[in-house]
Amino acid sequence: MEGRYVVVHIPGNQKILSLTEAGVYGYLAENLAVDGAATQSSTSGDGFAEKAIDRGLQQLYTGCSSTLNETNPWWRLDLHHIYRVSKVVTNRKHCCAEQINGAEIRIGNSLENNGNNNPICAVIPAIPAGESYSYSCNGMEGRYVNLIIPGNMKILTLCEVKVYGEENAALWGKSSKSSVYPNYVSGYAIDGLSTSFTHTNPETNPWWRVDLLKVYRLNRVTITNRPTSTSRINGAMICVGNFLDILQQHHMWCSFYSCS
Fold first, then answer.
1. Taking the CA of residue 96 as centre, how many other CA atoms within 13 Å lie in the half-sphere pointing to its CB?
2. Which of 78, 9, 75, 86 lies closest to 42 in space, CA to CA?
3. Half-sphere exposure of 194 (CA within 13 A, CB side)
């Protein structure tokens, strides 16, 4: 299911909606790398790290990133948020195709050894000139994506790196709800804490909504109930869509536990 808005809604009169945490997990249709920040161990000429995530805007060899000839050259992408990475695509369009041979793709959250100690997603034996290869990372989680070639007198050259992955999009969204019981604001449901919860007044058809700010292809929605007064989530429906009036449209309803 695709949508920008996720609504949790209890139909009926004199209902209270209360929840501790809502997680919305999905994939952006776009390449995550373009919003990231790139760096590398060294720079050869004008082969800046950022050229590996410029969406292929440069068509010449000078449009690629390149390190100096050195020991263990590396390139790193900071995605700014933690993602469950599904795949990394590397593209080698021009000369020097051998300058990616043996590169390790590493995914993780640590900057120890410049991020090069994070777990390995894949090892690139070689990519023929002009071809793109995709490597599955099977949901490895991390903020940093590294490519490193172990060994002496190595050069790492990248013309394009693309990263696709899943995130809890709710954490970066904007929440609202039908009413606010004093001190139990809507943002408590997406603050990542299990010690706070949101709460509406008793009313007809109470709802809570998160605007994900972008359209996602959703895999799952998770709801964490509060430890007390647990019945205040009973009967809730989850609706996904691209319009603010999705409650009136009565379409694309999904089950309480999953959107799959």
1. 16
2. 75
3. 5
Q: Residue 29's beta-bridge partner residues? A: none
Would you write out the chain's pLDDT as a tens digit for each of its 260 residues?
Answer: 888 999 999 999 999 999 999 999 887 767 889 889 999 999 999 999 999 998 655 444 457 899 999 999 999 999 998 888 988 988 876 667 888 999 999 999 999 999 999 999 999 998 888 788 999 998 899 999 999 999 999 999 998 899 988 888 898 899 999 999 999 999 999 998 889 999 999 999 999 999 999 888 888 899 999 999 899 999 999 999 888 876 665 445 454 433 33
Residues of the chain with CATH 2.60.120.260: 32-166
User: Distance between CA 166 and CA 26 in Å, rounded?
Assistant: 5
Which segments of 149-245 are extended strands (E)?
157-158, 160-168, 174-177, 198-199, 207-224, 237-241
Give the integer Cα–Cα distance in Å for 102 and 73.
11
Q: What's the CATH number for 32-166?
A: 2.60.120.260
Q: Which residues lie closer than 8 Å to 59 by C-beta, 6 or more apart?
A: none
* Bridge-based pairing state of the strands 103-108 and 2-9: unpaired
**Calpha distance 133→122 (Å, rounded):** 11
Task: Dig out the tokens for 211 from the structure.
Answer: 């605007």
Distances (CA, A) of 238 to 10, 35, 257: 9, 30, 9
User: Are the beta carbons of 178 and 207 closer than 8 angstroms?
Assistant: yes
Cβ–Cβ < 8 Å for 144, 79: yes
Q: Which residue is listed with tokens 């369009």?
A: 93
Nearest to 88 by CA among 101, 72, 77: 77
